[in-house]
Amino acid sequence: MPRRVNQKRYSDEFKRLLLEEMRQGKWASPYAAAKAYGIRPITVSSWMDAAGMTHLRQRTVEVKALSEVSELNKLRKVNRTLRDQLLDEVLARREDLAVLDAAGRKYGFSPAVFREEFRQGKDLQRVTNAAGCGIL
Predict the structure, then answer these.
(1) What is the pLDDT of residues 9-61, one digit of tens each?
(2) Closest Cα partner for 4 from 49, 43, 30?
(3) How does DSSP assign 25-74, residue by residue?
(4) Are 1 and 27 contacting, i.e. CB atoms less than 8 angstroms apart?
(5) SS3 1
(6) Number of Cα atoms under 13 Å in the Cβ half of residue 80
(7) Residue of 28, 59, 11 whose CA lies nearest to 36
(8) Contacts 24+ apart (CB under 8 A), 81-89
(9) pTM above 0.70, yes or no
(10) Is 44 exposed, middle or buried (0-12, 13-18, 19+ CB in 10 A)?
(11) Mean pLDDT across the chain, nearest whole number?
C-alpha cells in the first residue's frame, strides 16, 4: 500500500518509548500522549492496538448518587409520557387532516387551502361556510 505524501514514519524505538510511558501511567490517554509529542491521537491508538494495550485506554466512569439516579428515572418517565402524548396529538391531527381532505373533495373546494386555514387556526365554521359546504 503506497504511503501518503505527508505521512511520517516513527522509529520502533520511539513507539516502544511512548507505549512504555503509557504503560507506566505517564499519560492519561492516547490523546494526552499524542499532544505531548505533537502526533495524531489515532496514531498512538493504533500503536496501542498493535501492542495489545487497549486495556490502557482512558475509560469514563460515572458515579452518581442514589438521588441523582432517582431523579434521572423520574425525568425519563416524564419524557416518555410527553413523547406518548405528542404522538397521540400528531396521530389525531393526521386523522383530522384526512377528514378535511375527504370533506374538501366531497364538497368541491381545495383541500390544500382548507388545510392551510386549519393550520393557521382560523374559524372552521367560517371557512366551511365560505366554501359553501356548511359541514360544521
Answers:
(1) 899 999 999 999 988 888 888 888 899 999 998 999 899 989 888 877 765 56
(2) 43
(3) TSSSSHHHHHHHHTS-HHHHHHHHHHTT-GGGS--------HHHHHHHHH
(4) no
(5) coil
(6) 6
(7) 28
(8) none
(9) no
(10) buried
(11) 78
Cell of 32: 494526552
Return the half-sphere exposure (C-beta side, CA atoms, 13 A cut-off) of residue 104: 18
Computed over its alpha carbons, how large is the radius of gyration of the chain? 32
Output DSSP code: residue 136: -
29: cell is 490517554
Residue with the three cell numbers 482512558: 58
Q: Which three cell numbers stand for residue 44?
A: 498512538
Q: What value does the mean pLDDT take over residues 69-75?
A: 91
| Distance separating alpha carbons of residues 24 and 44, to the nearest angstrom | 15
Question: Model confidence at 136, in pLDDT bands (50, 70, 90)?
Answer: very low
Please state, in angstroms and rounded to a whole number, the distance separating the CA atoms of residues 113 and 74.
Answer: 43
